[in-house]
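This section describes the prediction task in plain terms. A model, or a person checking by hand, is given the sequence of a single protein chain and must write out its three-dimensional structure as a string of tokens. No templates, partner chains or ligands are provided. The sample shown here is typical of the held-out split.
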Amino acid sequence: MLHDTERRALARALEIAADPSVPLGPNPRVGCVLLGADGAMLAEGHHRGAGTAHAEADALARARSLGIPLTGATAVVTLEPCAHTGRTGPCAEALLEAGIGRVVIARTDPNPVASGGIDRLRAAGIDVELDVPEALAAAAAALNRGWEHGLRHSRPLVTAKTALTLDGRAAAADGTSQWITGPAAREEVHLLRTTCDTVLVGTGTARIDQPTLTARRPDGALHPRQPLRAVMGTSAVPTLPAVEGAGQQVRLATRDPSAALAELFARGARHVLLEGGPTLTAAFLRAGLVDELILHLAPTLLGAGRPAVADLAISTLADRLDLELVDATPLPSPGGPTDLRLTLHPRPTSVSHPA
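The expected answer:
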């Protein structure tokens, strides 16, 4: 079981691992806090991207620079220390060489190439604690869910986001769509963009809406973490609006969702946010390449207009695409309607119901 000081240290390690300056993408985000025998914090460190020191090595180096002895200290880390030599040495060995006596780990490493740190530490007689509070374990899992998805599936995690009315419309009959939802939902979209390394739209959205695809704070200032801005399609792609400080642009000259994801994965993307129109969303759904849907549902009706999702090639109810409701959260806007955010996961297979 964790001591109170270790719980606080783990919360801090998760906080620094998620620092906005840390890039998303092909490397996991990791934080480490070193504690003395009396529970006092000695040093902290975090991984800052490919080729930089791992969190444990960063924390150890900071402690050494201050002349702090580490024999018998506790290392609290968000991810299992690695046991392999890549651009940097194995973190498990670095902890052993420093004289660390106890290691608290929030999540085991799913990467077969890097895992094994727990076994190495225990074999050396180090006390390894894996029993952490559920909320902190969940936060550690959420921190790198795109990275872990990439390890399992060799493609980015895909979240499709759309705003729609109660009758499933994404735009009115005259094409107007701003704004279906209120300020709270729009603010959530900007926050969501900071958790994804790529925002992807189709040529139609890029041409008609000219979206900036930036992540902004509530005061309108650009967030320090900006996603890659991607447009996919075989037709001529207009340049997205130039915004100083925005993420880079990339054109994916394909209409094939699998090919688009493969190219983004090769570029280091591990979490893609679909913000395109009904055609793009339907293409990814038909291909079975949507892992999560986030629907911002406005309490309003249009009766006609563009649907939120285009044709899914479903001709009979038995072939419908069933979704699992993961979360439903009201999004009240001062002086405006209360939208509803639905988070859903497609089920592997359709579920038949008795007549």
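For orientation: The chain has two domains: 4-142, 154-346.
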